[in-house]
Amino acid sequence: PVRVECYDISNIQGKAPVGSMVVAENSVPNPKEYRRFKVKYQPESPDDFAMMNEVILRRLRAYVDSDPKFSVLPDLIVIDGGKGQLSAAIKARDKLGVQVPMVGLAKKQEILYTEAPSSSDVCADEEGVGGGDIPFPLSDGSGRVGEGVGDGGYGAQESDKSRNLADDRHPQP
After folding, report:
1. Dihedral of alpha carbons 25, 40, 90, 133, sign
2. Backbone phi, then psi, for 137, in 5-degree steps?
3. Chain-centre distance of CA 11, in angstroms?
4. Quick one: which of 166, 168, 169, 171 has its CA closest to 37?
5. What are the φ/ψ torsions at residue 141 (nearest 5 degrees)?
6. Residues 6 or more apart from 41 whose CB is under 8 A from it?
7. If DSSP codes are grouped into helix, strand and coil, which group holds residue 117?
8. Which residues lie below 8 Å from residue 45, measured CB to CB, with a gap of 6+?
9. In whole angstroms, what is the distance from residue 140 CA to residue 90 CA?
10. Which of 7, 38, 95, 162 has the greatest number of C-beta atoms within 10 Å?
C-alpha cells in the first residue's frame, strides 16, 4: 500500500483518552501527517471499542467533508487491537460508506485480523506476524503518538487547550 494509517487508543488509568493516527507513505513514516484525537466519549469505565469507533468515524467524516488535513484516503487502515476494535472501526467506516480496507493487529498474540467474515480471518506465519511485512514500528508508533512521547503528551492535552490535537470540528454523531 502507498499510504497506511495506524490507529491506537491511549489513556491514563481510564482518564483523558486519546486516539492516535500514525502514517507511512511508500513505507516511510511521515510524522507531518500524524494526528491525535481527543476522545469525547467518556463513560465511567473505558470502552476501547466505542472510542475506536469515534476516532475512525471522525477521521473518515473529515475526509468525506473535504477537510484539507484529511484529504487523502489511506490504502490501508491498521487498527491496534483484535476483533472487537477492528469491528468497531469497520462499523464507523461502513456508516459513512467509505471504501478502505482494514486489518486489526493484536501484537501481544502476534495475530493479524482481517475483514473476512469467517474463522479464517486470522493470518499468521510460522514466526507470527512479526516475521512478515506488517509495519510493527508504525503500529508501535501510534501508541507513542497517543502518549505524546517527545511532544508533551497527556500533559499537553490538559495544559495547552489552544493547540489543535484533534479535529474537533467532526464530533461523534
Report:
1. positive
2. -60, -35
3. 14
4. 166
5. -65, -30
6. 17, 47, 50, 51, 54, 172
7. coil
8. 14
9. 21
10. 7
Which of 42-46, 74-78, 144-148: highest mean pLDDT? Answer: 74-78
pLDDT on residue 43 = 73
Q: Of 39, 4, 6, 10, nearest to 146 (Cα)? A: 10
**DSSP for residue 14:** T
22: β partners? 6
Query: Which residues touch 55 (CB under 8 Å, ≥6 apart)?
Result: 7, 9, 19, 21, 37, 39
Written as nine digits, the cell of 163 is: 493547540
Rg (CA), the chain: 15
Distance between CA atoms of residues 91 and 115, nearest Å: 11
> For cell 491525535, what's the residue?
36
Statement: residue 68 has pLDDT above 90: yes
Specify the amino acid at residue 79. I
Q: How many residues are present in the chain?
A: 173
